[in-house]
Amino acid sequence: MGYFDAASSAPLHPVARQALLASLDEGWADPARLYREGRRARMLLDAAREAAAEAVGCRADELVFTSSGTRAVHAGAAGVLAGRRRVGRHLIVSAVEHSSVLHSADAHEAAGGTVTQVTVDRGGSVDAAGYGDALRPDTALACLQSANHEVGTEQPVAEVADVCRAAGVPLLVDAAQSLGWGRVEGGWSVLTGSAHKWGGPPGVGLLVVRKGVRFAAQGPADERESGRAAGFENVPAIVAAAASLRAVRAEAAQEAVRLRELTERIRARVPREVADVEVVGDPRRRLPGIVTFSCLYVDGESLLHELDRAGFSVSSGSSCTSSTLTPSHVLKAMGVLSEGNVRVSLPFGAAEEDVERFLGALPGAVAAVRRTLGAPEPRAAVRDDVLVVDSLGKRCPIPVIELARVIGDVPVGGLVRVLSDDEAARLDIPAWCEMRGQEYVGEEPAERGTAHLVRRLG
Amino acid sequence: MGYFDAASSAPLHPVARQALLASLDEGWADPARLYREGRRARMLLDAAREAAAEAVGCRADELVFTSSGTRAVHAGAAGVLAGRRRVGRHLIVSAVEHSSVLHSADAHEAAGGTVTQVTVDRGGSVDAAGYGDALRPDTALACLQSANHEVGTEQPVAEVADVCRAAGVPLLVDAAQSLGWGRVEGGWSVLTGSAHKWGGPPGVGLLVVRKGVRFAAQGPADERESGRAAGFENVPAIVAAAASLRAVRAEAAQEAVRLRELTERIRARVPREVADVEVVGDPRRRLPGIVTFSCLYVDGESLLHELDRAGFSVSSGSSCTSSTLTPSHVLKAMGVLSEGNVRVSLPFGAAEEDVERFLGALPGAVAAVRRTLGAPEPRAAVRDDVLVVDSLGKRCPIPVIELARVIGDVPVGGLVRVLSDDEAARLDIPAWCEMRGQEYVGEEPAERGTAHLVRRLG
């Protein structure tokens, strides 16, 4: 099996499946009821909460089950922001958070709050000083993922938590990508997770709020899950989620070593075997199973189709796959190449031979896409001392391909002016310059679109 | 099996179980992804949406899946109220709606909106004229359940929808209790449902918004389910929910006749075989499987325990079981007896012999509770021409028991003054008077608690 998109959703763990089946029979009734079937559901729910709390490293009464990780983030952020409203309405997030966090921030801003985005380095990592600089007397909440979902970079959560704690500001940690691998260390205040990322069933998230954190649940009142997650409890799925979290944790240490070796192999061999590739994400502080790279002169969607035809399921943060046609906000914040982007995220138990098959198939897939796209000839014209490339109306990765075709036509020190109205070019032309050792001079408004100026250095 | 609480949650239908198992293997991936596993999940999701839309009687693109019926109500009400905010902020609900609707109304009021509650008759039914009277130029939304969850009374949805439509006001119908039995007829605008009420798995609700209804989804943005239900789609559970809805609908007409005969039997025999019982809810316009009655001189919680020991699982809207110690808002709005309240809601396939066993066990269970409670002697004292019963500090059903003990001690035309600080007495003493043909004169503040004045008529 070539399913390499575990960071989106992991296949159901066998333990989860078994627990789900058993609790469909035992746990379908309303756990709020006092009769036999209700008491049985309540016992299952309580036991699942104990197990999940033990895995997270919190008290059972600090943990509630939500209907998804997204809901956990929405409810957690809204609850702390409302609970600490008297302190102020300032929210801090990193620039590379999951969309559930960034959309919570947007909603907060739309409701009159203010938001500071902390930048990341080229590896995708924040540093604690960045959070320290962002803290203000009116900061109600800071959010930081435990590890990035697109490039696998692990964040310095404990250090950031210390900085926040010293200022009396709670830190919400979106632990969706890392919870299967282990507890989140450090003095965080709120934590969220998503069961289908660790092999649990869909329909279960978790929200942990440490005692002492001011929290005011938002939305209509509902007595279930301590008033923090409205709606009938999904006991069978919750039982399965908790069981699979324990199961993956038991295998985590050993599996981490194995998957890390496989992703190391991809990190090392892809740039050797495919020309013009940039591997992105922090090379050391990273999750075991995720590796991400970008291929010049390739559009992500075509490459995904090629790989799918070859039997491999991966995802892409490339501008060319998203329905909005804007590049991944994560790659953008890191300032790395977004075109031809591929994220490989190995599920627990991914087979070595499948990874080898993938490494064997990738060069051909990239070459096929490049062949298709290589056709268009750049319409270049020398204007004064500048070579102008008109890429107006063309989408990623064509502008970069056209730039690469003509850079040799100007003398060293000469300029190429690429006219483009593609949003992705803003990101990819500077990234290409960095990869190729050319100078990105800057951009300026043109009669149509934007002109990107590149100086040939060598 | 004596599980008679289907109105809370129905056991999983065999078809749902089978569909869930199959789609756990086929539908665990992210339906937004373009690779094979994602396309498969998308196909399952699309097919489930088509099937559910057909069962509801709407277009597939009008229906989204939520994580519960409660979430569907919260999202539906909030979305229409926001979408029609320019019209005004007035909301109409019936007094007997499910708590998810009433809590939405509370939240709306807390946010500055206004709410009108439409009253019901003694059978629990609204009438269209009540909604007509409540409509105002600034009415943004009206809500009405298709049938009541506590007493089974079916509401005149089509008539109310006509009245609302004539005023240009959308009607949201909470169809949680009736959707397994059939489509909701009439010109409603928004409809909500809950899969675990029809034998689907927990974790799935549905929200239908007719084309043309102004709707602005609330909360942080999320691209899933047309932006109306945030979080990763629970495809396996959705597939199971849609499959079981089709399955129960195929059996509904036949099963309705069978269950109606069984609940008719309960309606007729309980008052014959147990003294001092009031059957509540509309005797004709009612769901097939629900029957509710209240027993004088009994507390609901003790009776539920007695019945649970005898192997029967039922619920109660009695003041004595709720954690808040206030009687069910439904029984209160109907003005019927709340003490010793029992709701029997038969699941699909409930066996006749189990119903007969229940009818056999009930008189003994009621008698046992009455025996235990019958012990306290009323402390009565004649003050002027009024017999005073001091029930201060005593909870439902003791005040009514003490009243019943002494009513014969005053002459016809004489007064009994019951002192009580129990909230339920407000409801139960007038209800007892109506059942017993005595006159409830009214209540007045006393030195402690409230004095209820009752005149002996016969």
List the main descriptive attributes of the protein structure presented here:
5-stranded mixed β-sheet; 7-stranded mixed β-sheet; Translation Initiation Factor IF3; PyrdxlP-dep_Trfase (chains A, B); Aspartate Aminotransferase, domain 2; homodimer; globular; alpha/beta; about 450 residues; PyrdxlP-dep_Trfase_small (chains A, B); 3 domains; Aspartate Aminotransferase, domain 1
Structure commentary:
The structure is a homodimer of 458-residue chains. Chain A has 458 residues and is α/β, with parallel strands linked by helices. Chain A has 3 domains: 14-248, Aspartate Aminotransferase, domain 2; 253-373, Aspartate Aminotransferase, domain 1; 380-455, TusA-like domain (Translation Initiation Factor IF3). Helices cover 38% and strands 17% of the residues of chain A. The first copy, chain A, has helices at residues 14-26, 36-56, 69-83, 99-110, 128-134, 157-166, 235-273, 300-309, 329-334, 352-373, 398-406, 425-436, and strands spanning 63-66, 90-94, 114-118, 139-145, 171-174, 190-194, 205-209, 277-280, 290-295, 341-345, 380-383, 386-390, 415-420, 439-445, 450-455. In chain A, the strands form 3 sheets. In chain A, strands 1-7-6-5-4-2-3 form a 7-stranded mixed β-sheet, sandwiched between helices. A 5-stranded mixed β-sheet of chain A has the order 11-12-13-15-14, with helices on one face. In chain A, strand 4, helix 6 (157-166) and strand 5 form a beta-alpha-beta unit. In chain A, helix 3 runs parallel beside helix 4 (99-110). The longest helix of chain A is centred in the middle third of the chain and has 39 residues, at 235-273. Chain A is globular. The two termini of chain A are 45 Å apart. The model of chain A is unreliable at 375-381 (pLDDT under 50). At the A-B interface, helix 1, helix 2, helix 3, helix 4 and helix 7 of A face helix 1, helix 2, helix 3, helix 4 and helix 7 of B.
